[in-house]
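Hi X.,

You mentioned you wanted examples for the new student's onboarding notes, showing what a folding record looks like when two proteins sit in one file. Here is a clean example. The first protein comes first, with its sequence line followed by its structure tokens.
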Amino acid sequence: MAQFTLNFAHHAGEIQLEKTAFSLSPEIEYITVRGKTPGAYRGAGCFQWTPAVKAMCVLFIQALARSFDDAYIPEPTLFGGRGSLAASIDYAIDKGPLWLCDMFGLDMSGRTNLRSLILRTNSGNKRPGPVCLSLNESILSPENITVVVNAMPIHRKILLQAIIDILTNESLEFIGPPPLESGDSSISLTKQITEAKKRLLTNLSLGFIEPPPLESGESSISLTEQPTEDKAKKSLMSAISAMNPDPAPVLIKTTTLEMV
């Protein structure tokens, strides 16, 4: 069974992929690092932080997050029309850029192994409707996907979802407007983004605090030992205040989607 590890760096409200490790068997492992060259990682491949790489991250993290649900979800893991994250990774699979070959290796026909890891519907937008992508769990089980942020393995769904929210928010994808207030007929894009950023920062301040390990003889951890939203917000604001030399608020940047 295949194994895939994604290592991220999280700083100032942004999260970006730094390193990956993929293997179809214990004998061969493909390592890639972010950059134009492997640099200090001799023998590794490399990638840059493009929409296609971001889409690949969202797809695998979403598949892992869904594995925490008891009920089976038949819907695609990632979908979207032209210019979406789904379309971006779909295009990359067909084009087969070097970073994709470095990251997942090649099959016997010389095509990237990612082609067999992802199930696709309406590839290339050949007909009206979205491009739909799902993980091929017969080759890569979600349980064999590992997500690491700042050297810390992530094992909680709330954290995985926060990472997905950040990655999709950067490209203005999958963000629905907050509920309309009384008397409102519409909400500006600026307000949507502001509300999304608040939700993301709250999720991260809560989520990146892992619960302490159980001591011998303990069967559970009391609720008072868990971080509350109010405490997490205060902790987050203190951290931001400590960075006072830069008065700019910690925001999630928005970027314009480009193809591979």
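Then the second protein repeats the pattern, sequence line and then tokens:
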Amino acid sequence: MGLGFSDGFPPSEASGFWEHWCAAYDGFLATEHGSPCNWCGKTEEAHDKECEGAFG
């Protein structure tokens, strides 16, 4: 997931999950679209805003 190469699995957008770096878990986690992270509570919307600020 999110490794930048074709590993035979569909991209996270197609699988119904969003990915983020979770500081509480200290790693990448995939979380179901529309649900907050079970570890840190981050939402997909907050993650998208962070990415826009960093890359947009």
